[in-house]
Amino acid sequence: MSNAGVTIFDGAVLRSIDLNLPELEHGVTGAQLLEISESKVSESLSGLSLPPHIKDAAISRVSAGDDVSFRITEFNREQASEKLGVFVSAVADALTDTPVVVSILDGSTLKLILEDEDDFAMLAENLFTDLDEEDKGKLPKRQIRKALSLMGAEMGVPPLSDFPILENIIKKHDADGDEELGQAQFAELLQPILQEIADVLHEKPITIVQNVEIFNGSKLRKILADEKTLKCLVEKMVKDNQGRADLIKNLMIENGKELGLPPLSSENESVALLYETIQSQLTKRDKETSEASAEEEFMDALQDILGRFAELLESTPVYSATTL
């Protein structure tokens, strides 16, 4: 059975966005320009609403940190196009460091399910069985809501919070209340509801952000190229009588997100093995290195270790479930 596919927005599509603003006959304020910029970016990203941290980063860059003054400043068409370019570049850069994983629900997955009688019959049976916890062979109509929730974005059904029209569809098909249905009746009620959801999504697709974080090494490479930032992170972690191995391990664990590292609990075997290998090598180095040279070699060792992580993540990005 087909699942709704996912799309990864990593900023690449924004690098070629048209920055011309022919619709502007007169000047615009910064506030208006931000609305135009966000709309153009969203349109290029299949209607995606920018995550707050990415939007804030773009506004900060285009306004040079003075959001209030920027919003009331007047810009002519040429200036507006230039500022639009800054905004778009900021979003693209942020997406390169922290790509966003989305599902674009356009009804196609549901239509595939509905067109295959065997697929739909199996789906309806599985949903009915999962919901019939007491094994009564009957379910109240209102359980249709839970069935749709169980299907979720993976099977092409958006959550009610992103798809409020779902409430109207459920009421239209009289799928509320306590009237009990057998398995066949349940399937008969579910089918037209899924069909209407598919039709609505075909007319107006919905983009759903997935709770997935991608670690691709981009953020880590930027930090490695900025020795000052790396040293600041190290200084925050330095403790008396702490060996180099423990210091680097704690640095990676406590500042992993800031460094762009996948969590130590990641199920990716390559990442787990790399953490284990690095810790072993660090412990060995601590025993072999004199205290006098330890401080001098520390930054080199740290950069070497983080460099290996960056190479691994670039060749094999790590996908990790997260809470948005």
Automatic annotation (TrEMBL):
GO terms for molecular function: calcium ion binding. Residues 161-196 form the EF-hand domain. SUPFAM superfamilies: EF-hand. InterPro entries: EF-hand-dom_pair (IPR011992), EF_hand_dom (IPR002048). PANTHER family: CALCIUM-BINDING EF HAND FAMILY PROTEIN, CALCIUM-BINDING EF-HAND FAMILY PROTEIN-RELATED. This is EF-hand domain-containing protein. It comes from Brassica carinata (Ethiopian mustard). The lineage of its organism: Eukaryota, Viridiplantae, Streptophyta, Embryophyta, Tracheophyta.
